[in-house]
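User: Assemble these into one structure.

Assistant: Restating your components, then the assembled model:
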Amino acid sequence: VKIGRGTRGLLAVVMSIGLLAAACSDDDDDSGVEAGGATTASGGATTETTAAATGTAGGELIDLATFPADPPEHIDPALNETVDAYQVINSLYDGLTDIDTTDPANPVVKPLVAEKFEANADATVWTFTIKKGLTFSDGEPVVPTSFQRAWNRAGEPEFAGPYSYLLNFIEGGAERLDGTAETISGIKADDTAMTLEVTMSEPYSNFPAVAGFQLFFPMPSAVEKLTSQNDWENGLMIGNGPFMMEKPRSDTEIVLVRNPKWAGNIYGDKQALLDKITFKVSADVDSAYNAFEAGEGDTATIPAGRFKEADDKWGTTLGTTVISSYHFEINDKDPQVGGAKNLELRRAISLSINRDEINDAIWDGYRKVATSITPPGIPGFKEGLCTEFCSYDPDAAKEHLQAWKDAGNTQTTPVKVLLNAGSGHEDIVNIIVDNMKAVGIDAVSDPRPTETYFTELADGACVLCRSGWTADYPTYDNYMYDLFHTDAIGGNNHGQYSNPEFDALVDEAKSTVDLAKQAELFQSAESILLNDDMAVIPIAWRVGDYAFNDQKVVNLKTSNLELINWEQISLK
Amino acid sequence: MFSYAVRRILLIIPTVFAALSFLFVLFFLLPGDPATLIAGGAERNIDPGVLERVQDRYGLNDSVATQFGNYWERTIQFDLGESYRTRRGVNDLIGDRAVNSVRLASWAIIIEVIVGISVGLLSALRRYSIWDKVTTVVTAVASAVPVFVLGFILQYLFAVLPNEWNWPTWARLRTQGLGPDSWSLFLIPRGDQWRYLLLPAVTLASVTTALAARMTRGSMLEVLRADYMRTARAKGLRERSVVMRHGLRNAMLPVITLLGIDFGTAIGVAVLTETTFAWPGLGSTIADSVIERDLPVLLGLTLVVILVYAVINVLVDLSYAWFDPRIRYGKGSEP
């Protein structure tokens, strides 16, 4: 999923195998909600979402952290692509499954609205049995049809959002998306037997993990009465999650209240503790942090340069290593920086960037300087994949720039470095622009509104553009396939990178069951991406960036997929 | 006077038409067409597929003339269209935002009038005194400090610190948002509202108040030397009456013009103040719409600003007559 605030990109569609296969295959007799397992910290990550929260019920939390710069573009699960809005959506809806990240190194898919799920022998047909007696907040029962309705809706060609490609996993999904079919043929909903039978377009052992993602959240029959599906997110969206909307969203706030009809989560919580959450929309990270310190809210995004101060003074999520990368994408089709002829220039740019300086100046050294795009926490991760061009070496940068010039290239206009404005990226881009100028590459910062930034990138606006990606699900292909495969052009591959050799390696890795072999293939692919093509510039791996008033707020934790379990938070 | 007022008001119509048409044409004269700009900038080659997707999404395939005709046809019927980006009706957006802008701007102008004019007046009357020197420095600094810096400092001094020092609630000003949105007589903040209003209003007023003070001082000094002031004193009027009735009233003409312009500016381009304080007004929305090439929003909101400017200008012109009885409109040339 995209990170509007710090990084971007969530829906790491879980296409990989292995990791989940174990979790899914013996989940057949999992029934009901499981109480969370033991807390395990691993690899420095201290994600502790765990057993049911114990706290006093009641009170209102005012959040200034989730939308510090702009209102979210979308809060409809079928349309959203940012982590920020996913925080709201995840509080409003429950999916068939959820991912237990108690042990960050070993995430487990558990049934949530489903009672159980099972596949046929070759994982081409998945059957979800839905729990009886669950309802939406308006009292309408949650039944298999609720899911069928939602998925058909998400595939409506005029409406479909950036993650709609996930429907291609299902038989008939492609036809629905291109408008040749009214419904997705691979879904059979039986409300009497309470089963949802999903036929895959290809064998897919990880589908239960994907089925818990926001695009697959259920929808009540109210959506069928709308003149335009775009109206849903601007009205009173009805869901089945721990919270429900108090009133339609506005440009200034989104207000959620406890949903008394909620059935509980995978950790054993039976009701949300807070009465109310108000997500306030601010216009600027620094001002929002001032408001937090003035007592106007309970949480805030930590502004650039104030990580240490915030950590000393408040509760923070800085201790959680999220599976998330902060990087700059490069438009491969851009005549100035893209393509094979500008490879040396891209190398010069990457070598000119002083990542340690950025980490110290902006994040007080809390993040880790990246040596690849794929962050630690992803199975198969290997440190130091970007061998030559991801470290700071201004002299080498000048040599590569000279090589680029010697090949007959000249720079006529400054390289535009795009960023979403007001979200705390200005200072980082300024350092990068200075770094580039110091080796002789003219560059200029090009701020765009956060609200539509990623839509612009998907439309092809990127030159050198700030980006980030938090795993939707911890798999290697969530980085390699979703961000850089030719299939993802028009989706999350903003740089429109396309290399058949890279694609072939990723495709092979996705279908490789042997985990060691699979990791090796992904690493080879990433090596091409970084060393041979320099198609993206890694900067840092992220940590959580919420500050909260720990005198008042209890149990605010972020998972390493960067989602907060808002229903577990209570007030002192 | 009446017919003059009517004529001036009718003149607003061609003014609005010309201004919006100019903006409309300018929009299409910018380097590249809007679709290209939306897709990524003027100096680059855009993938044709991308361009087509953008054009489809934003409905930009019609000729400019057709779009222009359609635009006016809708505008005359008070339908300002919907945003390219959010698909929200521009009329709704104006309803939400314009009122907030007018309130904030009104308070900024009230501060400007009270503080700016009194400071300027005192400086002029006590020329070269310590007071005059101090205000000269302070006003120079106030007009030089960037709005977001001032806003940030004010937030820290009047919201963050009072909170840390546990001052009573009423003494902790607020930094973000519109607040409870409760008003009496449209303009008077009710209940908690003033705590939200004060800092953005002061910030927005800072630069213009300094200018108003400088201008009042200069204008007043000129007037104080005028012959009619000596005459007024010679008639035996009290000094207070001389200064206020004969002096200040005459010195106000250029200041009134400045106030009129300031009010329009405060409504239309208070971008930084609105951003710093998350005040949902017109300025920041217009700025976003320019960057995003969101034509319907840009034109719709600009229409409001132009209308406000035009009406304020009429009021300013009419007020001249009150401030300077020698000015009489609509009577032709009298001997």
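Chain B has 14 helices and two strands.
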